Automatic annotation (TrEMBL):
The protein, known as: G_PROTEIN_RECEP_F1_2 domain-containing protein
Keyword list, A-Z: Membrane, Transmembrane, Transmembrane helix
Organism annotation: Parastrongyloides trichosuri (Possum-specific nematode worm)
Coiled coil: none
Chain segments annotated as transmembrane: 12-30, 63-85, 110-137, 149-169
Record keyword NADP present: no
Pfam families in UniProt: 7TM_GPCR_Str
Cross-referenced InterPro entries: 7TM_GPCR_serpentine_rcpt_Str (IPR019428)
Domain of life: Eukaryota
Length: 215
């Protein structure tokens, strides 16, 4: 059990930092200008809490603060999801005939993100926690420390999974990320080509200079 928790912590450190930082960039660079600001700020706080959970080690006071934020955000997120989901569903039903396909598609993607982000903690943390409580109730184990460590590790992974869902589900985000990596690839390739050309010119000039000296 300790080995599994250790692997989860190691995975969350690297992937959590990368995914949550990228999610913050995408959130403020690629999000539609008319996107709800409250939703944007709520997502930003989640990603920042995810970064904090990835960096802090077990027993660190900052981790306790970060996890407290995460738990509070779960409650806020569920409340926002219920309210927003009902309003959005009602709006889409009433105005389906006058909305463009692009607008409908964006709203459906947003609803899917909110739904999956609400389900993620229930599956990743809720099920192990229920199992943990059941084991305690039937007193099948002498020590529950290992199970507590595992649940703690799973809780810190939840923000990372949410940031991953935010990055891959909306088509706009996928295109933006793909274009970003294409630009990096082209930049690296151009740099290599420039270096190769410069080296070739220098070699050619050196070769010609050598020939002149010989003559």
């Amino acid at each position: 059990m300790d080995f599994v928790a250790h692997c989860i912590s190691e995975f969350n450190f690297f992937s959590g930092l990368f995914l949550n930082i990228i999610s913050l960039v995408v959130l403020f660079k690629l999000s539609p200008e008319k996107q709800n600001k409250n939703y944007k700020y709520l997502m930003a706080i989640q990603f920042i809490a995810g970064i904090e959970c990835s960096i802090c080690q077990e027993g660190d006071l900052r981790l306790i603060v970060a996890l407290t934020f995460v738990l509070i955000l779960f409650i806020i997120t569920y409340t926002v999801i219920i309210i927003y989901y009902k309003r959005c569903k009602h709006f889409l039903t009433e105005h389906e005939n006058i909305l463009t396909q692009k607008t409908l598609k964006l709203n459906k993607q947003l609803l899917l993100i909110l739904f999956l982000q609400s389900v993620t903690p229930l599956i990743i943390v809720g099920l192990p926690t229920c199992t943990f409580l059941f084991i305690i109730a039937i007193k099948k184990v002498n020590s529950t420390d290992n199970y507590g460590i595992l649940i703690h590790s799973l809780l810190t992974v939840t923000p990372t999974i949410n940031s991953f869902l935010y990055l891959i589900l909306p088509e706009r985000n996928r295109k933006g990320i793909r274009q970003f990596f294409i630009k990096i690839w082209k930049f690296v390739c151009c740099k290599k080509n420039v270096v190769h050309i410069q080296v070739g010119i220098q070699l050619e000039m050196a070769h010609r200079g050598h020939n002149v000296i010989i003559e």
